[in-house]
Design goal:
With about 300 residues, this protein is an alpha+beta fold. It is built from 9 helices and 19 strands. The longest helix is centred in the C-terminal third of the chain and has 14 residues, at about 245-260.
Length: about 300
């Protein structure tokens, strides 16, 4: 799916590699670099400094990861047995990174690939009726924090101050309401399809299939419903007007992602750079130790100057 380029020793941060990245991102949406000398967190940070200086912090994030400093992070720290569905990073909110860079410091003993899927291809596989429905109604993302499940609001907004949470939400167009016992509920309505700012192509760009309760195994889903009820689920997705999204609609979306998915196994030192609007990414289950780092760059969306 992505072109592969073998990097000569000592050239990773060179002008030639930077130009190759820019050309590949513009032409096909990404590239895989193999044979790099990246072996440590510091090596990765130095590389990202050289090629993607406009990095973003993982503010308003939705998954657990470790902040390694200088806006470099571990990949999502969900248990190895779980598959992370394909998704475009932060497409549930109004500000997202245009570019993602991943580096493998230590591949898993088995599995652990980072599958990719074309967002344009996914859109093309969806029925016109489904596309029209989501375009017309939009997607409402609802999150409940500090109920003892999923991330706390302190982790998500990277602050201990309610006033700072309120400032971030107001700036991002996110509605919120405080509850008792330090609970917070947020909701925001976003489009299902976005036009790529330079390519001009429409992309399926949302996380309805990931936020929706149907993304969980039936036993977990039933347990959560019983424990906290529909209104207090840690996260869920609805149509923009608050109406439920039927499971079969999202089954069609998941089938489109599966049909577009391509997996390549990691080797130590591999680097993948992708256009976050043109490609969704995920994670395959794995066994053994695995260390993949990520940085997000070139913010786009609301409040970002061109």
């Amino acid at each position: 799916m992505l072109p592969t380029h073998e990097v000569s020793p000592g050239t990773l941060a060179s002008d030639g590699v930077r130009e190759l990245l820019e050309r590949s991102l513009e032409d096909v949406g990404g590239i895989r670099l193999v044979g790099t000398e990246i072996r440590t967190d510091a090596d990765f940070a130095d590389f990202v400094d050289a090629v993607l200086p406009r990095r973003m912090a993982y503010d308003h994030g939705s998954t657990p990861r470790t902040d390694l400093g200088d806006r470099v992070y571990t990949s999502t720290e969900y248990p190895p047995r779980l598959r992370i569905p394909l998704h475009n990073e932060m497409s549930y909110t109004g500000r997202w990174p245009m570019r993602l860079v991943f580096a493998c410091l230590h591949p898993a003993r088995k599995g652990g690939a980072t599958p990719l899927a074309s967002s344009v291809g996914v859109l093309g596989r969806l029925s016109p009726a489904l596309r029209d429905l989501f375009v017309e109604r939009g997607i409402r993302y609802v999150r409940n924090f500090n109920g003892g499940v999923d991330l706390s609001w302190q982790q998500t907004f990277r602050t201990e101050k309610r006033s700072e949470v309120e400032r971030i939400c107001a700036a991002a167009g996110v509605e919120f309401a405080w509850g008792d016992a330090d609970r917070l509920r947020t909701w925001e309505v976003r489009p299902a399809i976005a036009e790529h700012p330079t390519a001009g192509t429409p992309c399926w760009f949302n996380q309805a299939h990931l936020f929706h309760i149907s993304s969980l195994p039936r036993a977990v889903r039933d347990s959560l419903h019983e424990a906290v009820g529909e209104d207090h689920l840690p996260r869920n997705a609805y149509f923009g007007d608050g109406a439920a999204i039927e499971d079969d609609l999202l089954d069609e979306v998941r089938a489109a992602y599966a049909a577009e998915s391509v997996e390549s196994e990691w080797n130590a030192g591999d680097v993948v750079v992708i256009d976050n609007m043109r490609f969704a990414h995920g994670r395959a289950p794995f066994a053994g130790d695995r260390r993949v780092l990520v940085a997000m760059a070139d913010p786009a969306g609301a409040g970002v100057e061109a």
